[in-house]
Design a protein that fits this description.
Elements: E1 19-22, H1 32-36, E2 46-53, E3 56-63, H2 67-85, H3 93-100, E4 102-104, H4 107-122, H5 132-138, H6 150-157, E5 166-168, E6 173-175, H7 188-202, E7 207-212, E8 215-219, E9 228-234, E10 237-247, E11 251-256, E12 261-264, E13 267-270, E14 285-292, H8 295-308, H9 310-319, E15 325-330, E16 335-338, E17 345-346, E18 352-354
Parallel strand pairs: 16-18
Antiparallel strand pairs: 1-9, 2-3, 3-7, 4-6, 5-6, 7-8, 8-11, 9-10, 10-17, 11-14, 12-13, 14-15, 15-16
Bound molecules: adenosine-5'-diphosphate and magnesium ion.
C-alpha cells in the first residue's frame, strides 16, 4: 500500500470499528458525536441512541421532525430482529429451527433465507448459511477458540451445503437435513439497517445514519445537503483508513478477517469460513466493502466476496444482476475500487479502478 498524496488531513475518528462517518452530522446527543462530527451552529432536531445487539455495538441517528420516534422504533426493530435470528437465544426462530430441524418461519426469516439461497447459488457455495456447526467448533460463537482437527472439520463439512435445505418461499416452510444448522449472521445486520431505512421513511425524518457494528447505512443526504463521508478502515492498522466514500441513500458494509479472530502458534484464524475447506477463508483479500442501495445484499455480498477472492468478486460484479460497487483491499495492501465509485471515493493511497 503506497501513499500517493503526502498531505494528510487530520481527522479524529473514534468509536466505530469498520467504517466511520466523518465530520458528518449535527448531533447534540451522545457518544456518536466523536465519531460523526458536530456542527454546533445548526438547529436541526436530532436524536441518537446506542445499543448492544447482535453481539456488537450499534448507533442509530436521525434528523428532523419525528427523529425521536424514528430512533425509538429503530432500536425496537434491532431488538426484535436480534431476538428472531439469534443462534443462542432459545426462543429465537433460528434456534428453534436448528433444534427441531423444520419450521414455518416468519416473513423476515423467509426473506433472509431466500436471499441466502440466492447468494449461495450465485457464489457457487462460497456463501453458505449452513456453516454454523463450524462456527461453533472453531469457538467463534462462545469465544472459547480452538483449531479443530482435520477429522473434526471433514465430519462437520458433510452437513454444510445450503443446496440441501428444503425451503418453500410461499409458505415459509424450512426443513434441514439431520445435523444441519444455519446462521444468518453474515446478512442479519444489513437486513436490519435496511429495515431501519424503511422506519426512517415512514416517520418522515429528514435524514439519518446507522452504524451496526461498523456496517453503515445512510438515509438521504446529511441535513446540510452535503453527502455523508464514510471512512473505510485499513485492515492492517485499524487506527488508519484507506479512503473515504461519499454517499447518499446507500449501505456501506465491510467484511474483513481482522474484525474477529484469534491467534494460535503464530497463525491468525478469523471468523469468515470457506465452506469448501472448513478453514477461515484465505482468498488473498483483507477486506471487502460493498456500496449498494440494499443493505441486506450489501452485507451478504461483503462476506461472499471476501470468501471468493478478487478475481471471482470482479466476475460477479460484472455479470450478476446485483447492483453494487465495491472496494477491495488485498493481503498485500493493494486497493481496488469499481468504476461506479470513481467520483465518490478518495484516498491518500494509490488505487486501481476496475472497469
Ligand atoms: P460481521 O458480521 O462480523 O460484520 P460478516 O458480515 O462478514 O461480518 O459476517 C460474518 C459472519 O457470517 C460470521 O460470524 C458467521 O456467522 C457467518 N459466516 C462465516 N462464514 C460464512 C460463509 N462462508 N457463508 C455465510 N456465512 C458465513
Ligand atoms: Mg456480511
Amino acid at each position: 500500500m503506497k501513499k500517493s498524496i503526502v498531505k494528510r488531513i487530520a481527522i479524529i475518528v473514534t468509536g466505530l470499528s469498520v467504517c466511520c462517518c466523518l465530520n458528518g452530522c449535527n448531533n447534540n446527543n451522545n457518544g456518536i458525536n466523536n465519531a460523526f462530527g458536530n456542527n454546533s451552529n445548526d438547529e436541526t432536531e436530532s436524536a441518537s441512541r446506542d445499543v448492544f445487539a447482535m453481539d456488537t455495538y450499534m448507533t442509530v441517528t436521525a434528523y428532523g421532525k419525528g427523529c425521536e420516534t424514528a430512533v425509538d422504533e429503530a432500536i425496537d426493530e434491532i431488538n426484535r430482529i436480534d431476538e428472531l435470528l439469534s443462534v443462542s437465544n432459545e426462543d429465537s426462530e433460528v434456534y428453534i429451527l436448528n433444534e427441531s430441524g423444520s419450521e414455518i418461519v416468519s416473513d423476515d426469516t423467509k426473506k433472509l433465507i431466500e436471499a441466502s439461497l440466492d447468494l449461495y447459488e450465485k457464489s457457487a457455495g462460497a456463501y453458505d448459511i449452513t456453516i454454523y456447526p463450524l462456527m461453533v467448533k472453531w469457538g467463534f460463537t462462545t469465544g472459547s477458540y480452538k483449531v479443530p482437527s482435520k477429522d473434526e472439520l471433514s465430519t462437520l463439512l458433510k452437513n454444510v451445503d445450503a443446496g440441501k435445505i428444503e425451503f418453500d418461499k410461499e409458505s415459509g416452510f424450512v426443513s434441514l437435513p439431520n445435523g444441519m444448522q444455519i446462521d444468518l449472521g453474515a446478512i442479519a445486520k444489513g437486513y436490519t439497517s435496511q429495515r431501519i431505512m424503511q422506519i426512517y421513511e415512514n416517520n418522515g425524518i429528514d435524514c439519518g445514519l446507522v452504524s451496526l457494528g461498523g456496517n453503515i447505512q445512510a438515509y438521504g443526504k446529511k441535513y446540510d445537503d452535503s453527502l455523508w463521508k464514510i471512512a473505510i478502515e485499513n485492515p492492517k492498522d485499524t487506527a488508519d483508513y484507506i479512503g473515504v466514500i461519499q454517499v447518499e441513500d446507500k449501505a456501506v458494509i465491510t467484511s474483513g478477517g481482522y474484525e474477529r479472530f484469534f491467534e494460535e502458534d503464530g497463525e491468525v484464524y478469523h471468523h469468515i469460513i470457506d465452506p469448501k475447506t472448513g478453514y477461515p477463508a484465505k482468498s488473498g483479500l483483507s477486506s471487502v466493502t460493498i456500496v449498494s442501495d440494499d443493505g441486506m445484499y450489501a452485507d451478504g455480498l461483503s462476506t461472499t466476496l471476501f470468501v471468493m477472492g478478487k478475481e471471482e468478486a470482479v466476475k460477479l460484479w460484472k455479470q450478476s444482476e446485483y447492483d453494487f460497487e465495491m472496494v477491495l483491499v488485498t493481503d498485500e495492501g493493494d486497493i481496488y475500487i469499481t468504476d461506479g465509485l470513481k467520483d465518490s471515493f478518495s484516498s491518500e493511497y494509490e488505487y486501481e479502478v476496475i472497469e
